[in-house]
Known about the structure:
186 residues, mainly alpha, disordered N terminus
Amino acid sequence: MEKVESNSDRKEGEGLGLGFGFFVRIIAFALTISAAVIIGVDKQTKMVSITVVDSLPPITIPATAKWHYLSAFTYFVVANAIASSYALISLIFSFANHAKDKSGNLGFVIAIFDMMMVGLLFSSNGAAAAVGLIGLQGNSHVQWKKVCNVFDKFCHQGAAAVVLSFLGASAFLLLAMLTIKRLHRK
Length: 186
């Protein structure tokens, strides 16, 4: 006669490991690749009036805002591309080796890399958010004018990308915590 396992026989959190972890890893991939693409295609051109001499009428010239004009946004795109690539590779690697690694070594390595992605993403989010805040408010102490009142679409896309990347970093943090908790139970 076969023994039937009931829900009360399972350890707390068991059954969430592989399926839930895969789901969260897919979410982390989707969020970070979306953030990289949103900033990567972010570009806006506006006609801007410039007064050269008060006695002459202003000159209207096209001004363009692109993500690669700002090193913080370049870092943001690269960091999110690295994190999304890692999420995809770790998803495949975890799936292929889940049943084989009983010692927990693979899980420990993945948890360390997940935490590295958290640090990478949070640092790039901070850099992009700081530049975005200067674009939104300007800085009167160094005479930097605000630009989000002119390049509103550019700024809104940047803000959306930072939010998506923050959620992606949070997903990696959740993955690391779940992996460490699972390893601690072994």
